[in-house]
Amino acid sequence: MSNRGANAEGTTGFPDDELLHEQEFIDGLYARVDVLRGDTEASVGDALAQGNTPMQARLERDVLVAERSGLLAALNAVDGSLCFGRIDLTSGVTHHIGRIGVRADDTEHTPILIDWRAPVARPFYLATGHTPMDLRRRRHITTDGRRVTDLHDEILDLGDHERTGHEDPTGDAVLLAALNSARTGRMSDIVQTIQAEQDRIIRAPHKGVLVVEGGPGTGKTAVALHRAAYLLYEYRELLAKRAVLIVGPNPAFLGYIGEVLPSLGETGVLLATVGELFPGVRATATDAPRAAAVKGRADMAEVLAAVVQSRQALPDPVIAIEHDRDVLMLDAGLVQVARERTREAQLPHNVAREYFEGHILNTLTDMLAERIGTDPFDGSNLLDPSDITQIRDDLAENPEVWSAIDQLWPRLTPQSLVADFLADPEGYVPDEDAAAIRRPVTGAWTTADVPLLDEAAELLGEDDRVARALADQERRAQVAYAQGVLDVSYASRTYEFEDKDEEDSEVLSAHNIIDAERMAERHEEDDHRSAAERAAADRTWAFGHIIVDEAQELSPMAWRLLMRRSPTRSMTLVGDPAQTAEAAGVGSWSEILSPYVEDRWEHKRLAVNYRTPSEIMDVAAGVLRARHPDFEPPRSVRSTGVRPWARAAGDDLPGTVAKAVAELTPAEGRLAVIAPRELHTSLAARLEDVTAGEEPDLTRTVVLLDPRQAKGLEFDSVLVVEPARYGTSDLYVALTRATQALGIVYEGELPQALRAATV
Ligand SMILES: Nc1ncnc2c1ncn2[C@@H]1O[C@H](COP(=O)(O)OP(=O)(O)OP(=O)(O)O)[C@@H](O)[C@H]1O
Q1: Would residue 176 count as lying in a domain?
Q2: In the listed set 394, 428, 460, which residue is the last one of a domain according to the structure?
Q3: Is 374 within any annotated ligand binding site?
Q4: How many CA atoms lie within 13 A of 738 on its CB side?
Q5: Cα 635 to ligand 1 centre (Å)
Q6: How confident is residue 471, by pLDDT bands cut at 50, 70 and 90?
Q7: Is 287 domain-assigned?
Q8: In a shared domain, residues 718 and 591
Q9: Residues 689-744: pLDDT tens digits?
Q10: Which of the listed residues 189, 220, 610 should we mutate to test ligand 1's pocket, taking the one with most ligand atoms within 8 A of CB?
Q11: Which residue minimizes the CA distance to atom 25 of ligand 1?
Q12: Which of 125, 415, 421, 733 lies in the 20 to 30 Å Cα band around 9?
């Protein structure tokens, strides 16, 4: 830590010029930001107060309000932690670095605070004594709200003998302070201390698929989130329109990471689990592992295609249609021809129905025409084309014809198709798989059902003839309305400017710059939801970039869903195969990716563990090495000197756990008790003020979780209960969640791998 204290006076009690100097800068910065905020609030207020204005002005007003509101949200989100660093260049220039960029109110709009994502800020993260990148000094500025509390300087130009009294010889005091600080139950950003290996990943180009792999605590999640913020900054035009999607393993995890992007001033991101990616469906039930594994298998795509085909039925043996005192017999042979012709079009089922309807109507028309129009003498047909058309039209009015078509080529929804299939899967999958996935037709949806629904939606498509007709009608009404607006605008112009020639007028009115078609289009665009909000409601949305955390957990069917949302294949996938728990998870990155991008994807590794001290990491690594002797754990960046311990519970497991919890609960910070789900009720009964359940409140001091829920999270202290009941990867996850202390309580035997490593 620096040798200077927490206010503008040094330890000697004399004023500290450096601190004072930085405080002056920060005061000036906030003064500017306060003005900016005031101006922005006022302009939003003015715009909203305008009331009923002509359409063109309203459109401009809405754009302004949206932009300014975004700016306000960013200003408010970063308030109190605006500036965190400074770089001094050998040229004598200095730049302050912050969460967003701020410019002075001068004619040049001189930058006074550089956004951490700007290229100018990059040396702050990358410069070393070996490669100083033209820096003499890097300064970390620690603030408490608007007050500067500490400075840490690293000298990067070894020939520079000037000293400030705030030198940090190791250069990692700020990082270690961040790693040792008490956890809050919410992940915080790492923008002040991004390490060079992380920075290179954060700023990698957005095109193509980037896989980021690393052990527990290597900052994969932190890097993924900062990458989202970086991409939104660097490719703002594109990504503000198309939005960024971040996929996480469960809602508790999304809650845990949910504050990081707003703290970086970014809100245009959709955070979702795979179970939330089918609009209108909420996955509330949980599958048994075997069922999830079957539903996630790649061949389910073919299985569902076969289910759809099986709904395209044949009469058994005939359907009799009464028409005009005639009976028309639709037999299997005739329908099969119509069905084959329809299938040849290779369209989704519901879209193809229009063709099937046509073929059946034609078949029936031919049948009837032959029956009533054939000349008994020479066998020729006496009907002319208008008679044939009339017959066809009459048939199209007959409800029996439509009931036959509905029976043979029914309109299907993804929900009905998948629910019916799951209620009766025999014949489509092997018997033992069918037994694993069968459930009542009214059963609640699970996360593993969502990729099946999405697949079904693709196979079925939408018969949007009615919607299209309505939209056409609506559009014609809008164009007519827009034309009316333009006419009114033209008429009012002649009133207002009657003393001026049209050419002389400096005031442009709507009719000068826009025609009715375009104006109607603008009206359609008049959708105030952000891109992320619109994306959340649209199954077919193509995201600008997709980030997947814990990517190793996703099934092949879930990958199909995600790839549909990313036609440009602009993706960042982060994960750790050693932490794979889901039976449906995929074995290797190339297995996941080759069907979509062959071998055109990049692979980066993170090797330093920032979370888990070496004493705890050694224990966790031992567990994996017991199964995989060559396993290489990530290197812990710090050690605490505190060894993990293990304690036998005797015959009172809940009592021993309660005692251990009392010992391990940090004065500040959070404790997780990680225990098999079946023990939760008995343990919760003995733990005061504990939070548990599907979505526990992670900000509470003591949280009770099962190992799957603990994935991706971290706590100051962790108590692992009954480790012998976990699978290897679940145990590895559980053991690597603590930043400070780890205890283990067990009944019976302690697994061999844990015996030697604990006290
Ligand atoms: N450069 C950094 N500066 C400060 N803290 C960091 C840095 N990198 C990572 N951390 C911290 O390390 C902890 C672990 O990070 P993170 O959760 O992103 O790791 P992970 O690789 O996703 O872990 P896991 O696979 O176990 O979920 C977090 O508290 C994060 O804030």
Answers
A1: no
A2: 460
A3: no
A4: 32
A5: 13
A6: confident
A7: no
A8: no
A9: 899 988 899 999 999 999 989 999 999 999 999 999 998 989 999 999 999 999 99
A10: 610
A11: 216
A12: 125
Shared domain for 657 and 751, answered yes or no, is yes
Instruction: Dihedral sign for Cα 229, 233, 239, 240, please.
Output: positive
Task: Give 692's contacts (C-beta < 8 A, 6+ positions apart).
Answer: 680, 684, 703, 704, 705
Rounded CA-CA distance 122/87 in Å is 10
Phi–psi pair at 291, nearest 5 degrees? -65, -45
Can you give the pTM of this predicted structure?
0.86
Backbone angles phi, psi at 609, to 5 degrees: -90, 115
- The model's pLDDT over 625-642, given as tens digits with 9 standing for 90+, comes to 888 888 889 999 999 999
The answer on 335 and 257 residing in a single domain is: no
Do 109 and 78 meet the contact criterion of CB atoms below 8 Å apart?
no
Check if the beta carbon of residue 645 is closer than 8 Å to that of residue 744: yes
Residues 286-299: pLDDT tens digits?
999 999 999 999 99
212's enclosing H/E stretch is: strand 209-214
CATH number at residue 213: 3.40.50.300
- Whether the CB of 722 sits within 6 Å of ligand 1: no
The tens digit of pLDDT for each residue in 248-292 reads 998 889 999 999 998 888 877 999 999 999 999 999 999 999 999
**Residue numbers of the domain that contains 77:** 17-153
- One domain, residues 254 and 315: no
The number of CA neighbours under 13 Å toward the Cβ of 586 is 22
- The pair of three-digit structure tokens given for residue 39, joined into one six-digit string: 């101006």
CA of 153 to the centre of ligand 1 (A): 24
Residue 531 belongs to a domain: no
What pLDDT, on the 0 to 100 scale, is given for residue 482?
61
d(CA 327, CA 107): 87
How do beta strands 135-144 and 83-89 pair? Answer: antiparallel
Asked whether 195 lines ligand 1 (CB < 6 A), one says yes
- Structural domain count of the chain: 4
Q: What is the mean pLDDT of residues 46-72?
A: 71
* In a shared domain, residues 149 and 21: yes
Q: Do residues 601 and 661 both lie within one domain?
A: no
Per the DSSP assignment, residues forming a β-bridge with 328 are 321
- What are 22's two structure tokens? 């930085």
In a shared domain, residues 330 and 418: yes
Average pLDDT, stretch 201-220?
A: 94
Residues 6+ apart with CB under 8 A from 137: 87, 88, 153, 154, 155, 156, 157, 160
User: Domain end: 560, 581, 606, which one?
Assistant: 606
Ligand 1, residue 214: give the atom nearest the CA: 21
Q: Are residues 435 and 302 in the same domain?
A: yes
Q: Is 218 annotated as a binding residue?
A: yes
- 38 assigned to a ligand binding site: no
